[in-house]
Structures are given as C-alpha cells and as structure tokens.
Design brief:
Blueprint: E1 2-16, E2 23-40, E3 49-61, H1 64-79, H2 86-112, E4 124-134, E5 139-149, E6 156-165, H3 174-177, H4 183-198, H5 203-208, E7 223-225, E8 229-234, E9 247-252
Parallel strand pairs: 3-4
Antiparallel strand pairs: 1-2, 2-3, 4-5, 5-6, 7-8, 8-9
C-alpha cells in the first residue's frame, strides 16, 4: 500500500507559539492512500478479474479532534464504516470485495467459462478517486469520484461530496448554513433551475423527459458549498433515468439570500 503526501491546508484558527507568544496558523496535512489490486478469478492466463484502483485522501496531521472528525466522515461516506481507522477501512474494502468476488462468481464462471461472450460480465471494476477544493470562505469540499461495475448492462459513476469547516473539521450540513424551514423555498429554486437546465416549461414537460417521474424535487445530500453558490449533485437514477446522466444544479447565494444564516 503506497502513501504519498499531497499538501497542507491552512486553517483559520491560530495556536500560540511556544516562548515567543506569537501566533502561527495550524496546519491540517492531507496524505493519500493508494491501492491498485487485480484479483483474478482463476489461475488461467485469460481469467477475468476484479480491478480495484483506490486513491483516498485523509488527514494525516493536525489537531487530533479535527483529524478524527474529518477522517471519520470520509470513511463513513465512502465505505459506510464508522470510527474505523482509514487505512483499515481501505484494507477492509479491498479484502471483502476480493473475497466476495471469488466466492460468489467463481462457481458461476465455471459454468460459463466456455462461452466467450459471457466473460465481460465477470470483469469487475471499482475505482475510487478523491480530491479537495476550497469553497466558500472557511470551507473545503471533499470530492469522491467512484465507478463500479459488477455485471449488468453498465457500470455506475457517482460523485459524492463532503464539506468541512476548515477551523473545526466539522462536516457542514445544510442545516448549518441555511435557516430553519428552508426546504420549501429551496425546492422551488431547485425545480426552477432544473426546468432551465432541461429546457422545459413546466413539471409536465419534466415528467415527459423522465425527470422527477415518481418523486418531488428535493435538495441532494451531495452538494458543494462553493464560492458563489451551492451546487447540488444528483447522480444517475436519483431524479432521472441513467441515460440522462449526472445532474448538477447551482443556486447562487444571491438567490438564497433570505435562506442563508447570517454570519
């Protein structure tokens, strides 16, 4: 398992420097766990395999409370594991998926081995790539790009996000930045943005194109607290069919002025 240091993120908070009484900014240092693993289903030279490529950024140094807060949020979002060391979480993901692949698929592949056309359904893929980007003042957004293929007609791309307070490491929810009761007004803004993006006049046209076919508009839990507004990310199948791809709707802070909590 290879670890490569990436960069340090300067926090707004300051700590007292020993002896001098001066102040220096605290550093929250990110590192990266990288794993490339190929799990062949059989020992044959042309065996199908499970290809796993993982690059997960985590906080290596800095305040213990901040480090734990950020890393726990990352492992929960990516691996659905809570209060687990991030290295252990990556190892668990790789080992569990490798074991399940061989245990579940080997008996089936033995039956299909002579059918060349069926080989592609056994070529599994799991890609996880992460990055960070500065957003609104005091916020860093953590992006998780994933691609998974486990048989079927196609793989699935997803973009997941977390937004961290740089000073505390807290994961920022919409409730942290928007006033109580924001959902009704925000849903209207999101639906208006969707109408514009889809080039539709009303909800009926949206339905005709496959949007919001069996649901109401809602704020996605994957969003970016950007410098100019909040971008809500809807992955395939969430508000539209797979064929329409990922949908991103940005609402400017100006348009949400009455919904934003005052600093």
């Amino acid at each position: 398992m290879k670890k490569t240091a990436l960069y340090s993120l300067t926090l707004a908070g300051a700590v007292s420097a020993a002896c001098s009484g001066s102040y220096t900014p605290e550093q929250l240092t990110f590192d990266s766990i990288k794993v490339e693993k190929r799990v062949a289903l059989t020992k044959d030279a042309n065996s199908p395999a499970y290809e796993m490529n993982i690059n997960v950024k985590y906080v290596k140094e800095g305040s213990e409370d901040i480090r734990k807060s950020v890393n726990d949020a990352i492992t929960a979002k990516i691996f659905n594991l809570h209060y687990v060391d991030i290295t252990a979480a990556v190892d668990s993901f790789v080992n569990v998926n490798a074991s399940s692949y061989k245990n579940d698929m080997l008996p089936l592949y033995r039956e299909d081995k002579l059918d060349i056309d069926k080989k592609p359904i056994y070529e599994y893929v799991a890609n996880i790539k992460t990055r960070t980007e500065d957003g609104r003042e005091g916020v860093v957004t953590y992006f998780i790009d994933t691609y998974n293929f486990q048989g079927g007609a196609h793989g699935l791309n997803q973009l997941l996000t977390l937004n961290f307070d740089k000073t505390t490491g807290k994961t920022l929810t919409l409730e942290d930045v928007l006033v109580p009761g924001y959902k009704v007004k925000l849903n209207k803004l999101l639906q208006k943005a969707l109408l514009k993006k889809a080039n539709c006049k009303d909800i009926n046209e949206l339905h005709d194109k496959g949007y919001l076919f069996s649901m109401e508009m809602y704020p996605s839990n994957n969003y970016v607290l950007g410098k100019e507004g909040i971008t809500f990310i809807y992955n395939p199948y969430e508000i539209a069919p797979y064929a329409l791809g990922r949908i991103e709707l940005t609402i400017s802070y100006d348009d949400m002025e009455n919904l934003m909590k005052k600093e």
